[in-house]
Design brief:
The chain is rod-shaped. It starts with a helix and ends with a helix. It is mostly helical and 173 residues long. It is built from six helices and no strands. Helix 3 runs antiparallel to helix 4, helix 3 crosses helix 5 and helix 4 runs antiparallel to helix 6.
C-alpha cells in the first residue's frame, strides 16, 4: 500500500468516525436525559403519596401541642382531689401519655421539628413541676391559678413549637 492509498482510506474513514463520535455523544446525552426524567417522575410520584402522610404527622403533632398547652390541659384535666402534687402528677402523666401516643410521628418530620416538640413537652412538664414545688401551692386550685397567672405574663412553651410546625408545613406546600 502506498501513501496515496492510505490517505484515500483515511479520507474515506474520517467522515464515518466523525459521524460515529457525534452519534455516540447524542445517544449518551439522550440516555442521561431519559434517566433523569424517569427519576424525576418517580420522585414526583413518591412525593404524591408521602406528602399526605407527612402533613398528617404535622397535624397530629400540632394537636398534641395544643392538648399539652398548659392553659388547655388545665381545663381539660380536672383535679381528682385537692392535693396539688397529685394533680401535678396527673397533668404530667396526661402529657406523657399524649406524647407517647404520637411518638411515631417523628419519622415523618424533620429532626429540628421533633426537637422543638420534645423541648415544648419537657418545658411544660418542668413548668408544672416548678409551680407544684412552690410553698404557697397547697391545693389543686392553687396550682391551676398560679400556672394560669404565669401564662398571662409569658408565652406558653408549646407556642414556639407550634410556630415552627406551621413554618415547616408552609415550606412543604
Amino acid at each position: 500500500m502506498n501513501e496515496s492509498e492510505v490517505l484515500d482510506l483515511l479520507y474515506a474513514l474520517l467522515p464515518a468516525i466523525v459521524v460515529g463520535l457525534v452519534s455516540f455523544y447524542f445517544f449518551n446525552a439522550y440516555s442521561k436525559n431519559e434517566e433523569n426524567r424517569r427519576r424525576f417522575l418517580l420522585l414526583r410520584e413518591k412525593q404524591k403519596t408521602a406528602l399526605p402522610i407527612r402533613l398528617q404527622a404535622y397535624e397530629r403533632l400540632a394537636l398534641f401541642l395544643e392538648r399539652a398547652s398548659p392553659g388547655k390541659i388545665l381545663f381539660r384535666v380536672k383535679p381528682t382531689s385537692e392535693d396539688a402534687e397529685m394533680y401535678a402528677n396527673l397533668l404530667i402523666a396526661n402529657i406523657d401519655q399524649e406524647f407517647e401516643h404520637n411518638l411515631a410521628q417523628q419519622i415523618y418530620v424533620s429532626n429540628e421539628c421533633w426537637d422543638y416538640v420534645k423541648t415544648a413537652k419537657n418545658a411544660t412538664i418542668s413548668m408544672i413541676r416548678k409551680v407544684a414545688g412552690k410553698e404557697q401551692v397547697s391545693t389543686a386550685d392553687d396550682l391551676r391559678q398560679i400556672i394560669l397567672k404565669d401564662l398571662m405574663d409569658r408565652q406558653a412553651p408549646t407556642d414556639a413549637a407550634l410556630s415552627y410546625i406551621k413554618k415547616e408545613v408552609k415550606s412543604l406546600t
